[in-house]
Specification:
Blueprint lengths: L1 H21 L6 H4 L19 H7 L5 E5 L6 H13 L5 E5 L4 H10 L4 E5 H9 L11 E17 L14 E3 L6 H12 L9 E3 L3 H10 L4 E6 L4 H7 L4 E3 L4 H10 L4 E5 L11 E13 L4 H15 L28 H9 L5
Parallel strand pairs: 1-2, 1-3, 5-6, 5-7
Antiparallel strand pairs: 3-10, 4-7, 4-8, 4-10, 9-10
């Protein structure tokens, strides 16, 4: 009897397995069907996926991420070259380009020439709101991270005798590339001292490298340079030419901060350049990574995560990583929205609500 029951149970199990084998329903199929399979130009799926775990596998990454920086003698270029080596993955790589600076970078994103850039936080807000050099609002980009302070440096030859912003009147002064963040900083700093950039100085448009070369040969008396310190162009210039960094003065700084909330007071010391023997008072803004809005959320999430969990604080990558701080990663972006991928990381990390 026991033997008969065992045979009957075995038969039931065989029928059960056969039924399962003939059932073609795949419980994972509905999630897989959510993608329309038509994503192009570096975009991910059509955005209807509800299963977050399945999204990463379906991402159509931008394989070659072109990144706009600034002149080859500036910190933007050196920093982003170093960072790009760490951000590279098996799914995508970064091509670092020397450009005309912040405004040029944003316009290149708008034109589709690049997908990512490092810009001044003041200029990106001008762009997003269509002011100060932007004839109309550019909203094709979003913010990823404020990474380090950029110092507004007014450098003059010692022979020029320049010791204040007011002393620039009638002098030959480099004011950065046209459309660069430096140009707007120079315009605003001069105005705070009662000087007009077009009427009161002999202005020259020049990159950091060209400014240094012209200071060296005496064709200009001073130059505005906005960059992380130490700036390569200034460090190299100081080895062959006697130069000073000009103190902006308390009145000029106060007027700047009253009118432009993105400026922060900054004190330069020998930690910035060893030729500085006494503190120099100036201002700073934030170097900020931005991306095209059509960059996939998952890819920007990965980039943001790597910036803060692998790169930040690792000075073997670049000295400026020591100045990266999650406390200001998203707090100084002004009216520019965060990219969804960056916002997702900051929320997960508890940096924003």
């Amino acid at each position: 009897m026991k033997k008969l029951i065992a045979i009957m149970l075995a038969a039931i199990m065989v029928f059960a397995f056969a039924a399962c084998a003939n059932d073609t329903t795949d419980p994972t199929q509905p999630d897989a069907a959510l993608s329309d399979g038509n994503a192009t130009d570096g975009n991910a799926t059509d955005g209807n996926a509800t299963n977050g775990d399945a999204v990463a596998a379906d991402v159509e990454y931008v394989k070659n991420v072109k990144v706009g920086t600034g002149g080859t003698s500036g910190t933007y270029y050196a920093f982003t070259n170093a960072v790009g080596q760490i951000l590279n993955t098996e799914n995508y790589s970064f091509e670092i380009l020397s450009t005309g600076g912040s405004q040029a970078n944003i316009e290149m994103i708008e034109d589709g020439d690049i997908k990512m850039a490092i810009v001044q936080n003041d200029v990106m807000n001008y762009a997003y709101n269509g002011t100060n050099g932007f004839n109309e609002a550019i909203t094709s980009f979003s913010a990823v991270a404020c990474v380090y302070p950029e110092v507004c440096q007014l450098v003059a030859t010692k022979a020029s005798g320049i010791t204040s912003v007011a002393d620039l009147a009638g002098k030959n002064v480099a004011v950065g590339d046209v459309g660069s963040g430096v140009y707007y900083n120079a315009t605003q700093i001069l105005a705070a001292a009662g000087l007009d950039i077009d009427a009161d100085i002999n202005k020259t448009a020049a990159s950091f490298g060209d400014s240094a070369a012209q200071l060296k040969d005496g064709s200009i008396d001073a130059a505005f340079i906005t960059a992380g310190t130490p700036t390569t162009a200034i460090t190299e210039l100081a080895t062959s030419t006697e130069i000073v960094v000009v103190d902006l003065g308390a009145d000029v700084i106060a007027k700047l901060q009253d009118e432009y909330s993105f400026y922060a007071a900054y004190e330069m010391t020998s930690a910035d350049y060893d030729f500085i023997t006494e503190p120099v008072n100036t201002v700073a803004i934030m170097a900020t990574y931005v991306v095209s809005n059509d960059m996939p959320e998952e890819q920007v999430y990965e980039i943001t995560k790597t910036l803060w969990e692998t790169i930040a604080g690792d000075t073997t990558i670049h000295a400026k990583t020591a100045e990266m701080d999650t406390a200001i990663a998203a707090s100084a972006i002004g009216t520019v929205p965060l990219h969804a991928g960056a916002a997702r990381y900051y929320k997960e990390a508890g940096i924003i609500e």
